[in-house]
Amino acid sequence: MKKQIKKNEELKKLIEELKKASISSKVNIWKRIATDLEKPSRRRRVVNLYKIEKNARSDETIVVPGKVLGTGDLNKKLTIAAYNFSEDAFAKINQKGTAISIMELIQKNPQGKKVRILG
């Protein structure tokens, strides 16, 4: 199977940074997220807020290597990092917790401590 070439330069940079962070910090979570983001867009994870609400604990950091959609409500204080957010999901997350990009998460937490991948 031929590997597809990514056209999105921002995504390429993010994947490269994730791989660098994985090597420099010796943390496998960043490599796993990079591998998930390298998949074609139709195979990337899409997670609704109700699923995050159901599976996450309060004050936890969740990473979605894909898109977060706004179906459902968020009643817990969470930090959610994702490649992409729908407008509705972004607004709902910021009411209770914090929505950040994966790049911001790498900068804030290079060791990947207490970070969970969901999707």
Key attributes of the depicted protein:
5 helices, alpha/beta, globular, Ribosomal Protein L15, Chain: K, domain 2, 119 residues
Descriptive report:
The protein is α/β, with parallel strands linked by helices. The protein has one domain (9-117): Ribosomal Protein L15, Chain: K, domain 2. Helix content is 43%, strand content 23%. It has five helices and five strands; from the N terminus they run ααβαββαβαβ. Strands 1, 2, 3, 4 and 5 form a five-stranded parallel beta sheet that branches. Helix 4 (87-96) links the parallel strand 3 (79-85) and strand 4 (98-101). Helix 1 packs antiparallel against helix 2. The protein is globular. The model has no long low-confidence stretch (mean pLDDT 92).
Question: What's a concise summary of this model?
Answer:
By secondary structure, the chain is of the alpha/beta class. The chain has 5 helices and 5 strands.
**CATH class, please?**
Alpha Beta
Number of helices: 5
Q: What general form does the structure show?
A: globular
Over all CA atoms, what is the radius of gyration?
14 Å
Residue fraction in strands: 15-25%
Overall tally of structural domains? 1
